Amino acid sequence: MKKVVFTILIVSLAIGLPFMVLDFLYKGAKEFRVPEELEKLVVDLGTGERDGELLLERYLPVPSTVELFFQSNTEGPKHLRLKSEGEMLGRTTPEVGFVVGRYTGTQSASASLVLAPGRYALYLTSGKEEGQLIVGYREIPIDQAEFARLSKIHGGDLNNPPSGYKEVYSAHLAGLDAHDEAIYTISTEKALDLGLSIYTSAQQGTVSVDFVGSTFRFRGLVSTEHRMCDQLELTLPRGEYQVKLSCQEADGQLYVFLKEGP
Amino acid sequence: MKESQAPNTAQANKLFFLTVLLTIAGTAIFGTRLGMGTNLWFNEFLYILLPPLLLARLRGWSLEEVFKFRGTSAKNYFLSVLAGVSLWAFASYFANMTRLFLDSTFGPVNLTEGINSLESSLYQIVLFLVGTVVLAPICEEIFFRGFVQAAYGRYSPKYGYVITAVLFGAYHILNGLSDVLPAMILGAAMGYLVYVTGSLAASMLFHATANLSAVLSGLFKGSISPYPAGWVHLGAAAALFLAVLTLSQVEGEPEPEQKEPLGGVLFLVLTALLFTAAGVVEILARMGRLSF
Questions:
Q1: CA distance A206 to B167
Q2: What's the predicted TM-score (pTM) here?
Q3: Which residue has the higher pLDDT, B225 or B147?
């Protein structure tokens, strides 16, 4: 009987311990994890419905990168819209929207925007629900030369990559018809630090540039709807990666720049 | 049985005090952080099972002899299961009636933030169910019927299991005042099984059956009125009758024990004070003078 009792206890432990660990991780995942360096704004969603309510209003005296971070512990969609008085570089209109669901733990909605000097404001449209919305934000003044470079791209002068980047692809998009076509392939035998910078001046038709690996696909890095440029910096494990283009009835130009190494 | 090969009441009372203290402190400090299920596992493994096993290891006791790690006949197993179900039905009825009495006399317990914050993830629910149906019957039987009853059997060979049942019931004050008497009744039945059959397996099976019945009945709790209809009183009496009849059919011969004096009275008194404090806290909470 001793053997049976201790076997039951050991088997119970072998099953129970992973459950305790999973429960611990589950609890951790239910918490808000706002990066420490961000200012925090907590919105109590239980106080009532909101229709474009002003949450945050700030003034930027110099060009800045504005980092935004959102989490919430309620299910319903929270529509946030950021409007800027000055230009929002890389975007065709100076406003951007976010939809935030139940994002806790490592899940969040976030963005990094380059804004010209001026006022910007964040508005919320949401239903009444017991729970919170957390807004994290930070403003980092941007170097004048870098802002000038980005402004040139924003103005249509696309051939302005950051220092260290080289052009790997450029095309006039008018008349180009491509469906998920590989426009650049990178093959590496060891881990590789890679920078990818993509600009387009297309304003009509469909343009989508994806960056694809065996286990991921970054979709729509640029598009005609609202995103003119994007930049990724990644450390890639060994393997093959492709930049893919889809394009129909578009106009303007597309430039892809790449940097290998730190 | 030689003196060095069995626990005495001084050891039982000291370890019982330690277990109660650890359970109260552990639950107060870690309960909400660990969650209901994990906390139960901590209670069963660390505070209830570990102390008597460590002591047995230190003293070189044989688990088979001292804690009665022995099997019994198929008939006794069957009777243990039957008695477990029927006596649980009566104990559950008794607990409900006690709760109604306490509610009407002192007011209901209002579970506020502290208790509600014990979040029940699926993992916690599984841990709680396994802890209730598997771990509690093994760990609590080893501690109470294996260790404490072995010690009190030497103080009162005939009624050692009754004293153990009183301690077992008192320990359940930590779950609420209404659980004390029902746990005493169930403890007396389990103690009797061990006393007669000399097998801890019989009481573990009884305990597991009773706890499983409690878990299964919990599934329907929301749909059953706490105010019993007339037939429920009759049903409870029938269940008690069936349990007594079943237990009377259990076969075995109690082992003779040598009578010894009571030791560790100070620790018994300290434990009683802890239980009294727990009871007073619940009464004050029911009267609205304390909130959790």
A1: 78
A2: 0.61
A3: B147
Dist. CA A149–CA A258, nearest whole Å:
17
Residues, chain B: 292
> Is the CB of B130 less than 8 angstroms away from the CB of A15?
yes
C-alpha distances out from residue B231 to A33, A164, B71, B84, B88, Å: 55, 87, 38, 21, 17
Under 8 Å CB pairs connecting chains A and B tally to 50
Spatial distance between the Cα atoms of B56 and B177, rounded to a whole number of angstroms:
32
pLDDT, residue A29, reads: 67
CB of B194 within 8 Å of a chain A CB? The answer is no
The answer to whether the CB atoms of A1 and B64 lie below 8 A apart is yes
**Contact between chains at A19 and B69 (C-beta distance less than 8 A):** no
Burial of B264: CB neighbours in 10 Å, binned 0-12, 13-18, 19+:
buried
User: What long-range pairs does B188-191 form, CB within 8 A, spacing at least 24?
Assistant: B188/B161, B188/B162, B189/B83, B189/B87, B189/B243, B189/B247, B190/B141, B190/B144, B190/B145, B190/B165, B191/B144, B191/B145, B191/B149, B191/B160, B191/B161, B191/B162, B191/B164, B191/B165
**CATH topology identical between A39-144 and A157-260:** yes
Q: What is the pLDDT of residues A87-107, one digit of tens each?
A: 888 777 788 888 888 888 767
Report whether CATH 2.60.120.20 matches the domain A157-260.
yes
For residue A12, list chain B residues with Cβ-Cβ distance below 8 A. Answer: 130, 134-135
Q: pLDDT digit string (tens) for A126-181?
A: 999 888 999 999 999 998 888 988 888 888 788 888 888 999 999 999 989 988 89
Cβ pair A1:B71 closer than 8 A: yes
When CB atoms are compared, the residue of A1, A19, A27 closest to B126 is A19
Domain segments of chain A as ranges? 39-144, 157-260
Strand, helix or coil at A37? coil
Cβ atoms within 10 A of the Cβ of B247, count? 20
Using the beta-carbon criterion (under 8 Å), do A15 and B138 form an inter-chain contact?
no
Write the CB contacts of B58 (distance below 8 Å, at least 6 apart in sequence): none
Spatial distance between the Cα atoms of B199 and B252, rounded to a whole number of angstroms: 10
Between chains, do B134 and A8 touch, taking CB under 8 Å as contact? yes
**Among all chains, which residue has been given the structure tokens 């096993």?**
B53
> Hey, what amino acid is at A37?
E
Are B170 and B180 in contact by the 8 Å Cβ rule? The answer is yes
Q: Which residues contact B71 (CB under 8 A, 6 or more apart)?
A: A1, B199, B201
Q: Which residue of A has its CA nearest to B32?
A: A27
Instruction: Return the H-helix or E-strand segment holding B19.
Output: helix B9-34
- When the pLDDT of each residue in chain B is averaged and rounded to a whole number, the result is 86
Cα B124 from Cα A19, distance rounded (Å)? 8
- Nearest CB partner across the interface for A9, out of B38, B71, B138: B138
Q: What are B156's two structure tokens?
A: 């009162």
Closest residue of A to B37, CA-based? A20
B31/A contact by beta carbon, under 8 A: no
Report the residue of chain B nearest A15, measured CA to CA: B127
Report the CATH number of the A39-144 domain.
2.60.120.680
